[in-house]
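Here is one chain, start to finish.
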Amino acid sequence: MTFLASDAPTALRHVGDRAVLLNQVLLGTAVLLAVLLSLAMGAVVGVDALMLGLTLIFIATGAAILVPWQRSPVGLVLLLPLIDIGAVMLLTLSSPASGFPLLWLFPAMWVGSTLGMLGVVGATVVVTTLYWASIVLVDAPPLLSAFVVFPIVVAGLATIAAVASWRSGAQRVVLEKQSRELRRAVDRARGQEELVTEALDAVDFGLIRLTANGDQVVANEAMARLHSAIGDTDVLQPFASDGLTPLADDELPLARARRGEEIDRTLVWFGAPGDLARRSLQFSSRRLTGKNVMHDGLIVVAQDTTAEELALRAREDLIASVSHELRTPLTSITGYVELVLDDETLSASSRRSLEVVERNAARLLAIVSDLVAASAMSRMGVSLSIRPERTDLTALAAASIESSLLPAAERGMSVELLADGPVWARVDAHRIRQVIDNLVSNAVKYGRDRGRVEVEVRAEADRVALAVRDDGPGIPAGEVPRLFERFFRSALVRQSVTHGSGLGLSISRDIVVAHNGSLTVSTVFGEGAEFMMSLPSPAAREET
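Its structure:
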C-alpha cells in the first residue's frame, strides 16, 4: 500500500464541510480545555501569546463553520491546519509546562488524512521544527523526547490518519461503484418486471402466483376480468366438469391450489344449467421450486372455455339426436331385409341385391351405434355404466374370433387364439367384448390379404392382458399419438375402400379406462401392429 503526492488533489476534492468542521471543532474543544486547565494551575507565563493563540483558534473554528469548503478552492482548505499549527506554537510559548505541544497532533493528523504521504512528511517537518524552536525559545533542557520520540509520534499518528483516510476513500469508491451497479440492476429488474407485466396482461388467460402459504402475490388483468365475470360463488354456483355436480368452496381449484395441490385441466362450471350467464373455466396449476428445492408456491392458470365447451356440447347433442333418429329406421330396414331373405322363392339376383342392402345397412347401423356410444361416454353426456362380474377373457376372445371368421376368410386371413386356458377378470363382459370385437375387426379390416391375426390372452402377476397382433401395413409413427382421438382416421385408411367412423378405438379406450385398465399400441410401419389391453386381475382388485 503506497501513498503518492499525486493523491493529494483527489483527496482534497473529497474534503467536505462536515470533515472540516469535525476536525476544527475537536481541536478547538481540546485547546479550550487545555487553556482552562493551564489557567487553573497557574502555569501561564505569557498572557499575550495565550490570547493571540486562542484568537487564531476561534477564527479558524468560525471559518470552519461559515465557509462552504466544498465549493472553495482546493488550497484554501490547508489554511485552517496551518493557522492551527501557528496557534499551538503561540500557546506553547505562553505556557511551556502545560503540554500544549501535544495539540500539534490534531493538525498533523488532519493534514496527513487530507494530503496522504505528502501531508505526513510536510506536517511532521513543520511540527517538529516548531517544537524544536519552542524548546530553544523557552530555554528548556534538551530531552530525548524532544528530538526523537515526539517527531516519531507525530509521523506515526499522521501516517495512521493517512492510511485510514485512504482506506475510507477506497471504500467510498467501491461503495459508489457497487451503488451504480445496484442502480443498474434495479433498473434492469424494473424493466424486466414491466416487460413481464405487459406480457401477462396481454394474454387472454388468467394467471395467479401463490406463495407457499397460499397468499396471492401476482394476478394479471385477464384473471381480474374472469373474476368479475363469474362474480361471487353465491350468485353463480360452481359445478364440476359434468355441469351437474355442485362443488363446495374447498373443492374449487383455487382453494385446492392454496393447499398446495397441483391440478391439471380441471373444468369448473359457474352457474346453474340453463343460466344464460353460465361460464366454464379450465384451471391448471404447477408447483414452483426454489433454489433449496423446497416448495416455493404455485402458478395457477385459468382459461375461459365457455365457447369451446358449448360448441362441444352442441356437437355431441347433435350426434346423439341424429344417431337416435337414424337407429330406429335402420333397425327396421335390417329386420325386414332379414325377413325377405328368409323367403326361399327369391331369385338369385334379388337375393344378391338384398344381401348388399343388408351389409350396408349393418355397416351404417354399426356407425350409428358407435356415435351413440361416443355421445354416452362424453363428459357432457351420460356416464359410462360398468357392471363388473367374474368373466373368462379367453372365452370372450374365442367368441369374438368366431364372429370374425367369415370376413377373415373372404380375405384369406387366419385368426388364431393363443391362450393356455381360462383367464379370469372382473369386468363388464358386454363392454369388454365390445373392445375385443373392435380390435379384432380392425386387424381383419386393415391387415394384408392372406395375412395372420393373433389374439393372445395371458395372466400376469397382478394384471391380465389381451393382445391383438397383425402383420399388416402398420401405422405411421406420426399418427400414433392421435390414434385414440375421436373421429381420427389414418391417411392410409382414408385412401382405402375400408369405411369407418374413427370412433372405435376411442370408445374402446374409454371402456378399458373405466375398468382401471389401459389400452396401448406398438407398431412398426410396414410390419404390423399390436394393441395391448391390460386389466387388473381379480386378486389385485380384492386386495385394493
